[in-house]
Design goal:
The radius of gyration is 21 Å and the shape is globular. Helix 1 packs antiparallel against helix 6, helix 7 runs antiparallel to helix 8 and helix 12 packs across helix 13. Strands 4-3-5-6 form a 4-stranded parallel sheet, with helices on both faces. It has a two-stranded parallel sheet with strand order 1-2. It has 2 domains: 95 residues, no CATH class; 175 residues, Rossmann fold. The model has no long low-confidence stretch (mean pLDDT 89). 54% of the residues lie in helices and 9% in strands. It is of the alpha/beta class.
Length: 382
């Protein structure tokens, strides 16, 4: 069994499937090579994540996998059509593999568990649920490590040490065999990451620029897809908070209401915040991008970066509304639509200019002067 990468989700998928006796083939991390494979064999105007997924699937199948597992989707987002298109592409390339799609249960956990039970050889539902809960425990731990890294990046002793500590901590969580070990590995990892803060910068947390990252979930979570956006911003002295972390996304999309816990409250807040600009679901994370931008402004963030794949319909809707959010709330917003043609130099220039704008606005406010105007129009990089 193989799958596509999306940030650290590979740890969770591997944990759940191996816990249920399934042989897992982890594909190579997304790279220029896998992207080139996906671009070569995908329709030209296909969604950027689809092309990256194809490259990952080929990498896993070449390592001996016989089946592919992926999540499904609903609404205008093309994620719901990925499986059929990707399966046909793989068959045209000569790969005879089974495509297993985990569709959102829409409130019924039994549907999801039944599909997981099928791909694990009809294991008892109780055992399936225990494996899923263990996987979710690891996912929460991984998100805690990511959040710690985001806080420390702008304050660390030179570039790099926090990244190395984070990488080792992720490995420790991935290797953990029980919940207690997962929690200890996460706690130790967070402490070790926080230990990378430079003594000179230890008291400068309040002075760090804070930026919210919103947009299509794959582009937000997968560093290769967004060209290491969080790392680049951290190097510029910016603390980044993703509007949606993987554990949030899984609880919202793959678990029924009773298991969403605090995420239900956040979802309601997002919908209410978005209502003056967008009052209905438009697929993917379109509504979330608008609502979270409003909430990030209320929480005192200096700006928002909106990232999405080129031609993504839900995020195009969101990007058309974000300039109004920017004007109403005085919140600088920059939209980045990325694909395989995005030039690194152009992207870096836009990011640096945006961070410079945020720094000048912060300095003007602290000096009691009128800050430079927030961008009234979201900008794109393609």
């Amino acid at each position: 069994m193989t799958f596509a990468h999306m940030g650290n989700l590979w740890v969770v998928v591997k944990t759940i499937l191996e816990d249920l006796g399934v042989e897992v083939v982890v594909p190579p991390r997304p790279s220029r090579k896998s992207l080139d494979l996906g671009v070569r064999h995908s329709p030209e105007f296909a969604c950027f994540p689809l092309k990256l997924n194809i490259g990952d699937f080929i990498g896993g199948l070449e390592r001996g996998a016989e089946a592919v597992v992926m999540v499904g989707g609903v609404g205008p987002c093309r994620l719901g059509h990925y499986a059929q298109v990707q399966e046909q592409i793989l068959r045209d390339l000569g790969y005879r593999c089974e495509m297993i799609v985990l569709e959102p249960p829409r409130g019924r956990l039994s549907d999801l568990l039944a599909k997981v039970r099928y791909l694990t050889g009809n294991k008892p539902l109780g055992r399936v649920w225990r494996a899923v809960r263990f996987g979710l425990e690891k996912l929460s731990a991984l998100d805690a490590l990511d959040q710690a890294l985001a806080r420390v990046r702008p304050l660390e002793r030179g570039p790099g040490p926090a990244e190395d500590v984070h990488r080792r901590a992720v490995g420790a969580v991935a290797a953990a065999a029980d919940v207690g070990t997962v929690r200890r590995a996460a706690a130790e990892g967070v402490r070790a990451i926080e230990g990378c803060v430079s003594p000179e910068a230890a008291g400068d947390g309040a002075a760090v620029l804070r930026v919210g990252l919103v947009g299509e979930i794959y582009m937000v979570e997968e560093p290769f897809a967004n060209q290491e956006l969080e790392r680049r911003l951290g190097g510029l002295g910016v603390e980044v908070r993703r509007a949606v972390y993987l554990s949030d996304w899984v609880r919202t999309h793959l678990l029924p209401n009773p298991f969403r816990l605090g995420r239900r409250c956040r979802t309601s807040l997002v919908r209410r915040a978005a209502a003056p600009y967008l009052g209905h679901f438009v697929g993917g994370e379109g509504l979330v991008s608008v609502g979270e931008s409003v909430l990030l402004s209320r929480e005192g963030y200096d700006g928002v970066i909106h990232v999405a794949p080129f031609t993504c319909m839900p995020e195009i809707v969101a990007s058309s509304l974000l300039p109004e959010v920017s004007r109403d709330l005085g919140l600088p917003v920059m939209s980045l639509f990325l694909d395989e043609h995005t030039a690194e130099a152009g992207l870096v220039t836009r990011i640096e200019a945006f961070v410079d704008l945020l720094a000048r606005r912060r300095a003007a406010r602290e000096a009691g002067a009128r800050p430079p105007a927030a961008q009234g129009k979201a900008r794109s990089a393609t």
